[in-house]
């Protein structure tokens, strides 16, 4: 098993914990705690790249992320996550839109479930998913963060 590394990023809306290996990022999640002051003698380049790109995103200087990442999940989850990456920057889609793009309109709840299991916040843009009626729907980081991210992207566009 690959060694796991962690790095915290202090965003304007809370601490983001970055987890990865030497090769790729595996998790980018908001955590409800203060930034970790635990010193790691070595942090792989991919984690430093992720940190820097998140910093550029929050400063309004980046819309596309280029570091390698991987996320374990079922084939269906992987398919949903791939569809999420197709939602244009600063735009939104509904669970129904994603289900229809997968040619399975009845999979709305399954799409919502897969969306909820996304561990790569911002990179796999689950914050861009809204209800069919245009309302904000669940977000692991909290609806207030979702609203902030959507407004941030709209200002950057």
Question: What would a concise description of this structure say?
Answer:
The chain is of the alpha+beta class. The protein has helices at residues 45-58, 75-84, 95-101, 108-116, 143-156; strands at residues 5-11, 14-20, 25-31, 93-94, 129-130.
- Mean pLDDT, all residues: 94
Number of helices: 5
Order of helices and strands: EEEHHEHHEH
Q: Can you tell me the overall shape?
A: globular
Strand content: 15-25%
N- to C-terminal distance? 41 Å
Low-confidence stretches: none
How many whole angstroms does the radius of gyration measure?
16 Å
Helicity range: 25-40%
As laid out across the biggest beta sheet, the strand order is: 1-2-3
Category from helices, strands and their pairing: alpha+beta
Largest sheet: 3 strands, antiparallel
Structural commentary:
It is a single chain. This protein is α+β, with helices and mostly antiparallel strands and 157 residues long. Helix content is 34%, strand content 16%. It has 5 helices and 5 strands. Strands 1-2-3 form a 3-stranded antiparallel β-sheet, with helices on one face. It has a two-stranded parallel ribbon with strand order 4-5. Helix 3 (95-101) crosses helix 4 (108-116). The longest helix is centred in the first third of the chain and has 14 residues, at 45-58. The mean pLDDT is 94.
